[in-house]
Amino acid sequence: MTLSVKQLNRFGLIVCAPFLGIFFWLTAANLSITLPEDVFPQVSAASEITFAASDTDKLTSSLDQAKQTAMSTAQSIKKSVALYNQTNADMSQIAQAASAQSGRPAMIYDRRITRQLGFASETVQSDNLTAQLFKIKAQNFTGYALKVKLKTPKAMQMVLGKDEFGQSETTLSAVKRHQAVAGVNAGGFADSGKKRYPLSTTVVNGKYVNGFEPTFKDLFFVGLNEDMELIGGNYRSKGQLDAQKPKFGASFVPVLMKNRVPQPIPAKWQISPKRAPRTVIANYKDNQLLFLVTDGYNENGNSGATLQEMQILLTRYGAIDGYNLDGGGSSSLIFNGRVVNKPSDGALRSLPTHFLFFK
C-alpha cells in the first residue's frame, strides 16, 4: 500500500499531539520546583572537627590494639623460643644418655672378660688401641696374657724379619725398628742355607709373600682381615682364603679352639713336646685379641704348658677361636720396650715374622 504526503503528515501530527500539548501547558503555567533544605545538609566547621576527632580516636584505638597484638605475639614467640631451646637441651641429654647406654653392653662384656684375666699390671691406651698386660700363675707354669683392643687399622700389622723375605730378627728388634709399643712372635719357619723362611702361606700388607700353599697335615693360616677381625683355619684353595680378605697372617699348628669348642689335638703335638713355652693367639666376640705366652726352661718337654692346658686357659678366659703359634725358643712377648717373658734359649730367637702393635 502507498501513502501520500498528506497522509504521512496527518499521522505525524496525531502521534506528536499529546507531547506538544504537555509542553505548551507547562510553558503557560510558569511552574518552579524547590527542594527541601535537608536534601543537602550544611556541614559546619565544628562538625568537621568532630569528624576529625572521631577518626583520630578510631586510629588511636587501632594502634593500641595493634601494639597489644604485637606484645602478645612477641611473648608467644619468646615462649616458643624458650620451649625450642629446652627441647633441644632435653634431646641433647637424651642423645648423650642413649650414647652412653649403647656402649654399656660392651663395657659390661669387657669388664667381665677382664675380670677373668685378673688385674692388669700395665696398660697402654691411645687413639689406636688399648693394650693390657696380665700375669698368669698356673700350677705347672707361669705366663702372660696380652689383651688388645684395636681401634683403627693402624693399630696392628705383621712384619717380616728386616722387612725382607728370608731374613729374620728378634721381636724386640722388630719392635724397636718399627717404633711399636708391643710385639709377639708369629708363625713357624723353615731354614734353608743361611736363610730363615716363613712356614707355608704368609700374607703381609694384603699380599702373599711366597704364593698360596693349600693346607696340608695339621697346618692352619691365622691372621686379620681388612676389617681387623681374626680369621683362621684350613684353606684348601687360594680363592677360599681370598674370600676372607686377609690383611696379614702366618701359618703353624694346630688349631686349639673354634667357636668356643676345644679342637682335638693331633697325637704328635700332644707329646712333641709335651710341655714347652707356648704362644697362642685368640679372639673375643667383640673382636678384641688375646695373646697367651707361657714360660719354660727349655724345649725338652719337661717345662712350660701343654696344649691342653692352653685350651683350658682359653675356655676360662672366654675366648672364641684360638690358634697355637710358634713356641719353644720362639715365644716372645715385648711390651713397652722390654722383654716380658723368659726366653727358653736364654735370649730371644731370630724369627721371620712378628705381630706388632702401635700407639
TrEMBL record:
<keyword id="KW-0378">Hydrolase</keyword>
<keyword id="KW-0326">Glycosidase</keyword>
<feature type="domain" description="Phosphodiester glycosidase">
    <location>
        <begin position="179"/>
        <end position="358"/>
    </location>
</feature>
<dbReference type="InterPro" id="IPR018711">
    <property type="entry name" value="NAGPA"/>
</dbReference>
<protein>
    <submittedName>
        <fullName>Phosphodiester glycosidase family protein</fullName>
    </submittedName>
</protein>
<keyword id="KW-0812">Transmembrane</keyword>
<keyword id="KW-0472">Membrane</keyword>
<dbReference type="Pfam" id="PF09992">
    <property type="entry name" value="NAGPA"/>
</dbReference>
<dbReference type="GO" id="GO:0016798">
    <property type="term" value="F:hydrolase activity, acting on glycosyl bonds"/>
</dbReference>
<feature type="transmembrane region" description="Helical">
    <location>
        <begin position="12"/>
        <end position="33"/>
    </location>
</feature>
<keyword id="KW-1133">Transmembrane helix</keyword>
